[in-house]
Write a structure and sequence with these properties.
This protein is mostly helical. It is built from twelve helices and six strands.
């Protein structure tokens, strides 16, 4: 009986574990379904998907600046050709300075008009035609970020916009390589063209840069994310532990004034009235004295002041006659005593000096040659 109950208990535990395993398997299946397999591409939209076409005609128009007129004139035949493949009509109005795109009866793709609208927007925002045509592809989108109203001060806005571009466009090039997007900074807008994930990252970097966060921090995180996405084991995990955390430092503090004015406490009562001379005399008792006594007192005060002034003047005059303090004399080094001198050593030095010959060494005459001896012999013969 005991054995049978134990077996039943084991079987119950196994049945209890089985739903958990089923849940884990279900979660894995869902995650596999949500992930897009590598190399998968959505099939293109053809006429067979919408053979009857569109019911209503829709159109979009956008204005362009005067400096883009010459470029649009030049590349307009290419724009018409690119939109003609999608059966969309495009018109350029140079008088009003506007571009209009509209659908035709042959248009079968309902999303093509939105792509054409984005194309003319990009052309108006100084994006070259070679890059702007890519918007007509299914896996490419665009984002025009308005940065003009994000910073009030114009000088600060120009500095931050230049920070986004970087020295010789290096920061913008790094952003393009990491996001696989084409980014164009022009005036008060930033035009981005590329895949959806890349556009999301570009918008974040641009917004942070205009909020005074340097783009190099976001570029660093993008580089780490790119390396982590290559690893199949880490692809489905949380990357928070790998990404750097940059703390915002406020180094510039507001300068405090040297003299701080302390506000007095508010009182509803007015300040006390200052005492007059009569009140002061009444308080000290001088008011009741005679005029002759008052005069004597005033004269005594004047004499005391005069005596103080005379003593001060006399002290200033006497300062010129006070001799200055003399500097202490430098202690001279004492000459060495005779007992410390080594007389024997000095005598030896004098002897050595006498033996040495001063001046240049004596010139030794060279030995006489055969020619000179023959000449001497001839001279003696002639004399004889």
């Amino acid at each position: 009986m005991a054995a049978s109950t134990a077996k039943d208990g084991m079987s119950g535990a196994q049945t209890a574990k089985s739903p958990k395993k089923a849940k884990v398997q279900g979660e894995l299946d869902e995650s596999e379904l949500l992930t897009v397999p590598d190399g998968w591409k959505e099939p293109a939209f053809t006429r067979e998907d919408n053979p009857r076409g569109l019911l209503e005609e829709s159109s979009f128009a956008t204005l362009f600046p005067k400096y883009r007129e010459a470029y649009l004139k030049e590349c307009w035949p290419l724009v018409e050709k690119a939109l003609g493949d999608l059966h969309i009509k495009a018109s350029l109005d140079l008088i009003e300075g506007s571009v209009t795109v509209s659908t035709t009866k042959k248009t079968f793709d309902p999303y093509a008009i939105l792509k054409a609208r984005d194309l003319i927007k990009l052309l108006a925002r100084s994006v070259p035609f070679e890059q702007a045509v890519r918007i007509l592809q299914d896996d490419v989108a665009c984002d025009i970020i308005k940065i003009g109203t994000m910073v009030r001060n114009r000088e600060r806005f120009v500095k931050r916009r230049q920070r986004l571009i970087g020295p010789k466009g290096s920061t913008l090039k790094a952003l393009e390589l990491l996001t696989n997007c084409y980014v164009m900074v022009q005036g008060n807008t930033v035009s981005a063209l590329g895949p959806y994930n890349g556009l999301k990252e570009v918008r974040k970097v641009v917004m942070d840069t205009m909020k005074n966060i340097h783009p190099i921090y976001n570029i660093k995180t993008l580089m780490i994310k790119q390396e982590l996405s290559k690893d199949p084991d880490l692809r489905m995990q949380n990357w928070e532990r790998f990404l750097p955390r940059f703390r915002h430092k406020n180094l510039s503090k507001r300068k405090e004034p040297k003299k701080k004015s302390v506000k007095k406490e508010y009182t509803p009562f007015p300040p006390p009235q200052p005492e007059s001379k009569v009140d002061q005399e009444l308080a000290s008792g001088e008011f009741f004295l005679r005029e002759s006594v008052k005069r004597r007192k005033k004269m005594g005060e004047i004499k005391v002041k005069q005596a103080e002034a005379l003593t001060k003047k006399q002290e200033e005059r006497n300062k010129a006659f006070i001799p200055p303090k003399e500097k202490p004399l430098m202690k001279t080094a004492k000459a060495p005593t005779e007992g410390k001198l080594d007389i024997a050593a000095i005598k030896e030095k004098v002897k050595k000096a006498k033996t040495k010959k001063l001046g240049a060494p004596p010139v030794i005459p060279p030995p006489p040659t055969s020619s000179t001896t023959d000449k001497k012999k001839k001279k003696t013969k002639d004399k004889g």
